[in-house]
Design a protein that fits this description.
With 240 residues, the chain is an alpha+beta fold. It is 47% helix and 19% strand. Strands 1, 2, 3, 4 and 5 form a 5-stranded antiparallel beta sheet that branches.
């Protein structure tokens, strides 16, 4: 009887041991793995939700894209990527003819590009003054490199026209509505005949009806403007 009880107790203890070992060796790792998978799935669901939100925003913005591209095209037409002076002269000639003034001359200047100053590291206090001024030679300045892409440059121009007051006013209005963007910055008006007028034509000068007008302005150009790229609207992902 004692031997039977002992055998049963050993069998029960062995079974419990085997079950415990099976749990820790097989069941517990699988439960941990399942918990990790649930965490990863929750994170992926959250990431997918964020992507869907971004995609919705992009779709809404894509609807406005054609209008934005049209606005950019209109601005690009007003600001070429080169000086385009012959076209500018033709436009000003047409503007003067439309206003009834004589287009005497136009004097363009070299383009000006505003560049931000490069940061200069402070030299040690023990360094010579010449070394603090320039890394090459005292008083020397580093040569200016090419303007970066997309920088707006200005071309100062001086225009001279001759006509009466109302025609001059019409010419200024025409000049500010050219196919090329032009900004008037200074205007000088004084009595005077055209340089091509006969020397004995003094009556209109004396009564002040004929005016010589000098207009200083600026036209613009986009240096190394990148070529326009076709925009692709986002599409909805296929349903699974």
């Amino acid at each position: 009887m004692d031997k039977l009880t002992q055998s049963v107790a050993l069998a029960v203890a062995g079974s419990v041991t085997i079950m415990g070992a099976g749990y820790f060796l097989l069941v517990s790792p699988k439960k941990t793995e399942a918990a990790d998978l649930r965490t990863q799935a929750a994170e992926q669901i959250a990431a997918n939700s964020e992507l869907e939100t971004q995609l919705t925003i992009l779709r809404a913005q894509a609807k406005e894209l054609p209008a934005k591209q049209a606005d950019l095209a209109r601005v690009a037409a007003l600001i070429p990527d080169n000086p385009s002076l012959p076209a500018l002269i033709r436009s000003l000639s047409a503007a003067s003819a439309s206003a009834g003034v004589e287009f005497v001359s136009i004097s363009p200047e070299p383009p000006e590009t505003d560049k931000p100053a490069a940061p200069v590291a402070a030299a040690p206090s023990s360094a010579p003054a010449a070394a603090q001024t320039s890394p090459t030679a005292p008083g020397a300045t580093a040569p200016a490199g090419p303007a970066p892409a997309g920088v707006l440059s200005t071309i100062p121009i001086t225009i001279s026209v001759v006509g009466d007051y109302f025609d001059i006013a019409q010419f200024i209005a025409n000049a500010e509505n050219l196919p090329r963007a032009l900004r008037v910055v200074e205007l000088t008006v004084e009595p005077g005949l055209s340089p091509t007028a006969p020397k004995d034509s003094k009556a209109s000068t004396e009564d002040g009806r004929i005016l010589t007008t000098t207009l200083k302005g600026r036209v613009f150009m986009a240096v190394a403007r990148p070529a326009p790229t076709a925009a692709v609207a986002p599409v909805a992902a296929p349903a699974k």
